[in-house]
Specification:
single chain; about 200 residues; mainly beta; Trefoil (Acidic Fibroblast Growth Factor, subunit A); nine-stranded antiparallel sheet; four-stranded antiparallel sheet; 17 strands; about 5% helix; Interleukin 18; cytokine activity; IL-1_fam; secreted
Length: about 200
Amino acid sequence: MSADLIHMHPVHFEDDGTLIFEVQVLESDSWRKHKTVKTQIFRNANNQVLVVKPEDKADGVAIFATKTDQEIEEESGIIFNIHIFEDSKPRKFPVAFSTKWNNKTYIMCIEEVGNQMKVTFRERDIPTYISEDVSSMIFFKIPFSEGDRQFYMFESTIKENYFLAFEKDENNITHLIIKRKEDEIDQFTRLSYSAPPNTLRNQ
């Protein structure tokens, strides 16, 4: 066997809390896509819906807003796919996010510009394999509190202790941001996701 390959028994939890062990051979320092949870909507602690407009050059690329069920169903940039990855050195629960806008696929990423971290959306498909131990598109999904299966925090893998969060500006618009978590309990990093209302009605 090549020296840069290691046998792994990746461990992950399914959405229902089931612990899964799988036998895989992964290259050192890498991520491999495992499965995709389709058609989810994100909400903040105020029950606002995340709306993404990747081609909008203004300061409203990703905001949280109050939306009706019909608007959620009809507008682009609200429905997300959550892509679950396996880690060659299992640490936490790695995920990536993509959405459709104008029939194009965009991936949520974190970029460091100068001394500032920011959320961006890049037009591309989710890769099935990433040959590095950190990635601008991979986040660690962490329960907001012990045993919580509704609210989560999402930590960037490129910079420890930086989490997706929401913040209201002077115009009362709530933006998706990335921020350093200073307090052990930071309500602004408290996010949830679920199937769209129309999907729940049809079940």
